Amino acid sequence: MLETIGAILTRIDDFVWGLPLVIIIMAVGIYLTLRLKGLQIRHLPKALKYMVQNEEAGDGEVSSFAALCTALSATIGTGNIVGVATAICAGGPGALFWMIVAALFGMATKYSEGLLAVKFRRVAPDGHVLGGPFYYIENGMGKGWKWLAKIFAFFGVGVGLLGIGTFTQVNGISSAVKGFFDPNTASSVSIFGMEYSWAVVITGIVLTLCVGLVLIGGIKRISSVSQVVVPFMAILYVLFCVVLLAVNIKSIPAAIMEIVKGAFGLRAAAGGMLGAMIVAMQKGVARGIFSNEAGLGSAPIAAAAAQTKEPVRQGFVTMTGTFIDTIVICTMTGLCIVITGAWNPELALEGVGVTTYAFQTGLSFLPPAVPAFVLMMCLVFFAFTTILGWDYYSERCLEYLTGGNIKAVKVYRWVYILAVFIGPYMTVSAVWTIADIFNGLMALPNLIAIVALSGVIASETKKYFDKVKKLG
User: Fold this and answer.
1) For residue 150, what are the contacts with CB-CB under 8 A and spacing of at least 6?
2) pLDDT recorded at residue 35
3) CA 20 to 30 Å from 171, out of 75, 103, 183, 307?
4) Distance in angstroms between the alpha carbons of the first and the last residue of the chain
C-alpha cells in the first residue's frame, strides 16, 4: 500500500516538476531580468545597504530587516543543507550550477514579488497588514482574477501544512539529532508498530513545545526570534564552510570544473549528454526554488508587513534573501559536498548524511563530533525558524481564503502544531515528494500574476530612480 502511494506521488511530482515548469520559472526570471535591465546585478550593493538600513516611517507591523529575517527564516532551512545534498546526489555536481543560475534570475523575480507586495497590500485600521500574491492578483489584475488568488492561497496553506513548513523541516531536525546522539538506534521505542529512536521522540516533543510557544505571539514574536537566530546561525554555518573551503583550497578549481562539466552533461557518454544535462537542470532548479522560494510567492507575504512607504526599496530588500540563501549558503554547501566527494553514489549516503560526511572529511583536523555537532545545531535552528515563518505565511493565506475568519486561523494554528508533532514519523521520500508537488502548484498562479503585472513593476522602478535622480 505504502509503495503504491509512493509510486503515485512520484508520478505526480514528475508531472508537476517536469521540464515545462522548470522552463516557465527560468523564463519568467529571464524576462524580468531583461525588462529590468539586470537590476538585480547592477543594484546589488544598494540592495544589501537597504537590507540593514530600515526606513524611519511607513505603514507596516515590523521593520524591513525584521520582514527580511522572517522571509529568510522560512527559506534558510533544510533546503540549504539537506536539499542541496539531495539535488547533487540525484542530478550530479552540475545541479549546483543550475541552482546558482536559477537564483540569479530568481533575484529579479523576488524583487518583483517584494515590490508588488507593498504596492498592493492592505493595512487595516488596527495596523494589521495583509499582503502577498493574493492581494496583488486581486487588486492588481482585477476582481475578475480573484479565483486565481484563491487558488494561490489554497496551495499556500498546503505548502505550509504538508510541505516546506512542517514535515520536511521536522524530519530534517529529528534525523540530524538522531544521527548525532543515536545513529544506530541503540535506544528505541515502538510507536504504531514501528521502532523509533528515543532521540527522535524527545526531539519531536521539545520542538512542538518551542514552536507552540512562539506561534502564539504572531508575526511580532516570530520576527523577533528570527532577527536573533537567523543571522547568528547563518554566520556560524558560513564560517564553517569558509574554513572547510580554505583548508581544501587546492581542490576548488577541480570541483568547479566538475560542476560545469556536469551542468552540460559533459561527464556522461556522448549519447547521454542531453539527458544528463536535463536531469542536472531539473534537480538544480527544483531544489533551488525549494530553498530560496523565488517565484513561489511566499516571501512577499512577509514583505507586505514591512514598515515602508516605498515598494521599490522593499523589492530590493526582498531580493537579497535569494542572494543570501542560494548564491551564498547553498553554493558553499554544494562546493563542500563536491570537493569532498560526499555525493559519490558508491558511498550510498543520503540527506543530511551527505553534508555531515562532507564536513567531517573536509575538516578532518577536527574531532568528527565537532563538525557533526555544528551541522546538527545549524540544521535544527534553520529548520526551526522555517517552521515559524511558514506558519505565518500559511495563516495569512488561510485568512484570505476564509475572508478574514480569525477563528479558522486559530484552529489552523493548532493543526499546524499537530503536524509538527507527527512530522518525525513521516518517511523521507514521501515528505520530499509531497513538498515538491505543493511547491510547483503554488508557483503557477504567482508567476502568472508577476508576468501580467510586469508593466507595473517596470513603471514603479523607473519612477523610483527618477525620483532618486531629482533628489541628487
Assistant:
1) 134, 400, 401
2) 95
3) 103
4) 68
